[in-house]
């Protein structure tokens, strides 16, 4: 029986969707892409809510058929059996540790300033809410900097989905007013990720 093609539903500018395209680029996985528009209300339609009742992108139609939401779960699914998800229990738990860090301490604090200051352009770079996000986001970046001063990648000595998950919003942080020159090891890690074979840019 033919398996359905992997299909990614995203938006053009989503960093969470970029994580998925980035991993597929590194792994040489073919992906069909359908980009929707948040401002046009595409995520509020009945058809999309049947795919993801939570109403967010990215979502991936799996090889088995069901749709999968949440970027961390999608990365985990796609990386199974590849070098981007180490096989041993401790290394896998360390990957999960960084995926959780990305979702709880990193992503919103870096993505929200970018969204409101640059993509929507409705908040000033020094608006109180933006300053509050940046204060927390700088703590996350300092934590990454401390790790990357001692390691080339987040888990082990090669890139994993931990690096892929942390890459997009770190790479685009300056659009939310962050100063990456304060984080030289993070900048060198971003360059290493961009130099890997199969790297795909956001646009
Ligand atoms: N935890 C989710 C977050 C996904 C997310 O925030 N998606 C945004 C685009 S980057 C979205 O769909 N926003 C529309 C909305 O929340 O209504 C993930 O990692 O995939």
Automatic annotation (TrEMBL):
Q: Which residues form the GST C-terminal domain?
A: 88-203
| InterPro entries per UniProt | Glutathione-S-Trfase_C-like (IPR010987), Glutathione-S-Trfase_C_sf (IPR036282), Glutathione_S-Trfase (IPR040079), Glutathione_S-Trfase_N (IPR004045), GST_C (IPR004046), Thioredoxin-like_sf (IPR036249)
Give one Pfam hit by family name.
GST_C
Q: Which PROSITE patterns match?
A: GST_CTER, GST_NTER
User: Which Gene3D superfamilies would you find in this protein's record?
Assistant: 1.20.1050.10, Glutaredoxin
Ranges of residues in domain GST N-terminal: 4-86
Q: What is this protein called?
A: Glutathione S-transferase family protein
